[in-house]
Design a protein that fits this description.
single chain, 137 residues, alpha+beta, OB fold (Dihydrolipoamide Acetyltransferase, E2P), 2 domains, 5-stranded antiparallel beta sheet
């Protein structure tokens, strides 16, 4: 008689465990998908912007950021950074294409996500806004 009562209890425990595991999994995926790890600004010149991908077309770009040495009198060196743009950010894509063609110095506002998903872009860095400085240094 005790075995008959014990089996339904095990079934309920397993169902609750699976439900909790499913909810935790969904919560973790939502956090990784929408969570923002870092926000910031890069200043420099946009080198390229392109649509890449076979299965998922994503917008990718490169910016040249000049860094200055810590020693007095040393020359600056250029460092490039890769970034992505979400496809729904049409105005940002248009602005980036314009500044890349004109060679303008810009400030790119970005967010860094926890994980790069293939349908979003190649990098974890996503440009959210473009500030133009209208100078061609």
């Amino acid at each position: 008689m005790e075995k008959e009562r014990f089996i339904p209890k095990i079934g309920r425990i397993i169902k609750r465990f699976l439900l909790i595991a499913l909810l935790l999994g969904i919560g973790t995926l939502c956090f990784l998908y929408w969570g923002v790890y870092e926000e910031g600004v890069w200043a420099g010149k946009v080198l390229s912007i392109s649509a890449k991908g076979v299965l998922f077309k994503t917008q990718e770009g490169k910016i040249s950021v000049e860094s200055f040495g810590s020693l007095k009198g040393t020359s600056p060196f250029a460092e490039t950074r890769d970034f992505s743009i979400e496809n729904h950010e049409e105005q940002v894509i248009k602005d980036l294409q314009e500044v890349a063609l004109k060679g303008e110095r810009v400030s790119l506002h970005f967010i860094k996500r926890y994980v790069a998903f293939p349908w979003r872009g190649d990098t974890k860095y996503f440009i959210t806004r473009v500030e133009r400085s209208n100078s061609k240094e």
